Amino acid sequence: MAAYQRILLKLSGEILAGDRGHGIDERVIDGLADEIRDVHALGIQVGIVIGGGNIFRGLAAAGRGMDRVAADQMGMLATVINSLALQHFLEHREVPTRVMSAITMTRVCEPYIRRRAMRHLEKGRVVILAAGTGNPYFTTDTAAALRAIEIGADVILKATRVDGVYSGDPLKDRGATFFPEITYLDILNRSLKVMDSTAISLCMDNRLPLVVFNVGVRGNLLRVVQGERVGTRVGEG
User: Fold this and answer.
1) Is residue 144 part of a domain?
2) In a domain, 74, yes or no
3) Domain CATH for 229
4) Distance from C-alpha of 38 to C-alpha of 18, rounded to nearest angstrom
């Protein structure tokens, strides 16, 4: 039994890189495609936003002296590469998938049009929303929050490499405290690195639930959409 009818899954580019730290690890994306297929098989409508940090990080390049707008545009193009890769692995599993880009590139994918995206979802197609918001200075976290609100998603599922939200980085700080539940305001006040502040504010203002979970554990995504207590639930309190 599914707890949600329509979800927005947020994947970072770093997750696709796996242990390599750069590029796309085919074993990782293969496993992710299996997980998404299992969720899709329940009849859940799935939207996905993927980062591009495994290929190019605009903010980091800007910090090295590159023009920020150009660097962010390169980062948006990196998300399209990741999106097309995931589409391939999903369609290899006979999961109908559409890539829709905020930057028009009709030779490789569809332009993002809100009503068309919702129609794809209603027809049972997984929709991968690429190129962020199409604007520089905005992260794919913000794009995920914006697109989730636009398409009427019931929840954002933020996939990470750790079990949820902690008071610090659990990979570096063994004393970091795990929060099974936390409010948007607490995340902002504590400056926790969950999503950027713009994304968290968008979720808070629109009362959009957020679940942060470890996508590296097989079956976690399915358990989350079935309503099991996995990861950290973020809400109004």
Assistant:
1) yes
2) yes
3) 3.40.1160.10
4) 21
User: Tens digits of per-residue pLDDT, 189-223?
Assistant: 999 989 999 999 999 999 999 999 999 999 999 99
In a domain, 1, yes or no: no
Which two structure tokens, joined as six digits, stand for 27?
A: 């074993």
User: Which has the higher per-residue pLDDT, 173 or 159?
Assistant: 159
E strand segments, 68-147: 97-101, 110-111, 126-130
Nearest to 59 by CA among 128, 139, 120: 139
For residue range 92-143, list pLDDT tens digits in order.
999 999 999 999 999 999 999 999 999 999 999 999 999 999 999 999 999 9
- Exposure string for 150-182, b = 16+ CB within 10 A, e = fewer: bbebbbbbbbbebbbbbeeebeeeeeeeebeeb
Report the number of distinct structural domains present in the chain.
1
73-85 pLDDT, tens digit each: 999 999 999 999 9
Token code pair at residue 80: 């399209």
| Residue 219 within any structural domain of the chain | yes
